[in-house]
Amino acid sequence: MIKEKMIMKKTIISVLRIFAVLQMTKYVVIASISCDPRPRSCKDIILNNPESKSGEYTITQDTKTPISVFCEFSSKSHGYTYLKDYSESQFNVRSICSTTDEVKVVHLRTSGKRYGTVLEELKRYQSNYSLSLQINENKGFNAPLNAPFLGKYIYVGFLPRSIAARRSIQGYRAGSKDWEFNNCDANPNSYIAFFYNNSPLQTHSYHKRCCYNKYMRNWIDVSTRYSLPIPDDYFRFFEMHMGGCGGYVVPNYGTFSDIVGAVPGFRFDVTCSDIHCHHGGSCIIANGSPTCLCSSGFTGSQCKEKIPFSCKDIAISKGPITGEYLIYSRTKQSQPYNVFCEFHQTYGLTFVSNTNAIIDANELFEIKSQVVVRHLRNNKQYDSILEQITPYADKPLTVKYNSFAGFRAPLNAKKMGPYLYLGFLDKDTAKAKNTQGYRVNDADQTFVNCDRNPNSYITFYFNPKSNLPDGYYKRCCYTPLMKTWLDVGVPVDPARQLPKSYFLQFEMHVGGCGGYAINGYNTLANIKGAALGMRFEL
Origin, by domain of life (predicted)? Predict the structure, then answer.
């Protein structure tokens, strides 16, 4: 009996443990589902995508009710948020702004044009006070006259009641200039209130008897044209009240008869505390903006992306989509350069644009049995597949950057380098008096080396100084062999055509009795350049 009771007790404990695990699992799943990826502010939007454009977006606050906002991305480090409306009186203005030192007010005129200016405290008060930004409240300040009539509002307070209730110099700062008045009767009004009322306006009548003056319009007159298309329904009825002898204004009346409405923009700032630099990167302030300084091997605004060193890296990270890309030199990662990646089913081709970057040819050239050379003639592009001739089919082609080690030196290396060097037969092999040449589009093109001269290459010059080639082409040695690979070129499909910056001046030299040519001269006068396509596996 005792044994049976112990077994039953253990069974109950096991069931309870399983139930507890299930309960924990349930809560974990619920927590995972409740994770809300929706942006809470314009700052979230620019942090999630630094390339975001100014425009209308939807954000979500704690109430989960979508809120329409217009995000002004002034730069990658700061901007302004303009509220179209808000559904809850508890909306927290501080959730969408980083500072209360300023507010940017954009107003709409009857002409349909928009103007904006930054409002601040007077300089004399800035060390002790900043603006007060409140929703449906005016704590510490005088209440707006239209609050009972027009409902919810955004309140921008300048001087609190305790300071404004003095006979002293007061006012506001706009357009980087102080606009001051003497409070003649200690009336403690110091604010602008922007009202969100969707019903027909029935406003307080105070504006009919008081107190328009030029001072109240200064912030309007110093504003500048605002080019971003904030929709018309963002612009709201507002009232501005200053003093004791400062003034009172609303749009569509008196000196404000040309003003339809206005909307305040709350400034947000992106700082290093907002930036997460991945893979060991660190945030620095560069030109006033937070920037990730990435560790070796990574790039991107937050160092999330692996640095691509080849078209194969591009295919792995972004997919095999033919087009132009930026890759980096593994030798010197501060030197990016443009390549054209052409992807086929099982292999790809890398073409290098004219650049001064240091290139690691071995990074780009994997399948060494053949290359594609694309040339430009009469604004049309043609491909030729070049290989070793049949007797040397087992000998790989060689591609080097600014080097000819093991091969004969190109004649224009010093004048027109750096260069890409395509070598067929190395110097030791090419110095024999035997059949040599190249294979193009499955056909051997041969000659007999008559004097053991071991030239066997095509060189593609980047030529940054645009120097003219050596005059050797004037005395030697055009032969049909120099043109055959060009004449049998196959037209390139428009989707794969290269930008003209990829076509480089080239020099071809084979033999002893094979020939020498440089494009742009003599029989190659109509050839504007060629690009070397290096093969890699997919």
Answer: Eukaryota
